[in-house]
Each structure stands twice: as structure tokens, then as C-alpha cells.
Design goal:
- By secondary structure, the chain is of the alpha+beta class.
- The chain has helices at about 5-15, 45-50, 70-80, 100-130; strands at about 20-25, 30-35, 55-60, 60-65, 145, 150.
- Helix 1 packs across helix 3 (about 70-80).
- The relative contact order is 0.13.
């Protein structure tokens, strides 16, 4: 199936060193995160000057191609053109990471699933506080003021 990002996908694959140079390819919200066998085979300057590529970053053993909001569609096109299954790493090909990089990877992987919930809770709390819906009002103990109504609470 032809995609409007097929041309960009071919350019990206060619300039990261070809299909044989790619170990794995996960992506995040704006970036394709390649793990390459040899980063020296990648043509960073060509990729940076390519329309559709914002920039290229080499960090933490990853070769990151920043695409922007269309990264999901570009990712699908790259996987299709390079016959990749995506984020799967080939056995024995993973690069060794330093202790600090492994610790950061562990922490980010642990907390990433709950960040959305925590952020949503904070936004809801901020909204309710700005509307005056949450908090104690007055000096009467045992009363909670919630959305304009005093609610009596049991104090044990």
C-alpha cells in the first residue's frame, strides 16, 4: 500500500546505513529511535537536510531521527520498506549500555506508564482549586466545602 511517506522512508533507510545496519527501531511521540550496528555508516548531514526530518540526534546509543507529529505514519512506512517488525531487537545484537544509561532506562520505563494519570490528576486538581470547589472554608471543624456545598464529615 503506497503512503505519502514512502519516499521519506526510503531516504531514511538509505541514510542510516541500509536495512542491514538497523538493529531495532522503536519510536516515541516525535522521533524514530534507531539502534544501529555502526553509526559511522549513517549520513547525518543528508538526513538533517531532508524535507520531513527536523533534525538528527545521537544520544544514549540511539540514532534518533526527529520527524514531528507524523512520526507514526513515517514509522509504518519505514518498517514496511525495510521489512522490519519494529522495536524487536535481534538476538545478541544489543549494544552494551553504561550503568547510568541502564538506570535511566529502567526509571523511565517504570514511570512512563503512570505519567499520563499523574498529569491528568494534577490538571483536574488545579482546575477544581481554581473554581473554588475543593478545600476547607470557614473555621468550623468537620465541614468540607465541595463545589458550593458544605458537607459534614465524620471525625473519628
Amino acid at each position: 500500500m503506497a503512503s505519502k511517506y514512502d519516499g521519506l522512508a526510503r531516504i531514511i533507510i538509505q541514510n542510516v546505513g541500509g536495512r542491514d545496519n538497523i538493529i531495532s527501531l522503536p519510536h516515541c511521540i516525535t522521533r524514530l529511535r534507531f539502534q544501529l550496528r555502526d553509526e559511522g555508516k549513517a549520513n547525518t548531514d543528508v538526513l538533517k537536510s531532508t524535507d520531513g526530518v527536523v533534525t538528527v540526534i545521537q544520544s544514549g546509543g540511539q540514532y534518533q531521527v526527529v520527524i514531528g507529529n507524523q512520526v507514526g505514519e513515517v514509522y509504518d512506512a519505514v518498517c514496511e520498506k525495510a521489512h522490519l517488525s519494529g522495536a524487536e531487537t535481534e538476538e545478541g545484537e544489543a549494544k552494551e549500555m553504561s550503568l547510568g544509561a541502564r538506570l535511566l532506562d529502567l526509571l523511565s520505563g517504570t514511570f512512563q506508564p503512570i505519567l499520563g494519570y499523574a498529569g491528568g490528576r494534577q490538571l483536574l486538581s488545579l482546575y477544581l482549586q481554581s473554581r473554588g470547589c475543593v478545600g476547607r472554608h470557614g473555621a468550623r471543624p468537620g465541614k468540607l466545602f465541595l463545589c458550593g456545598c458544605a458537607v459534614k464529615r465524620r471525625i473519628r
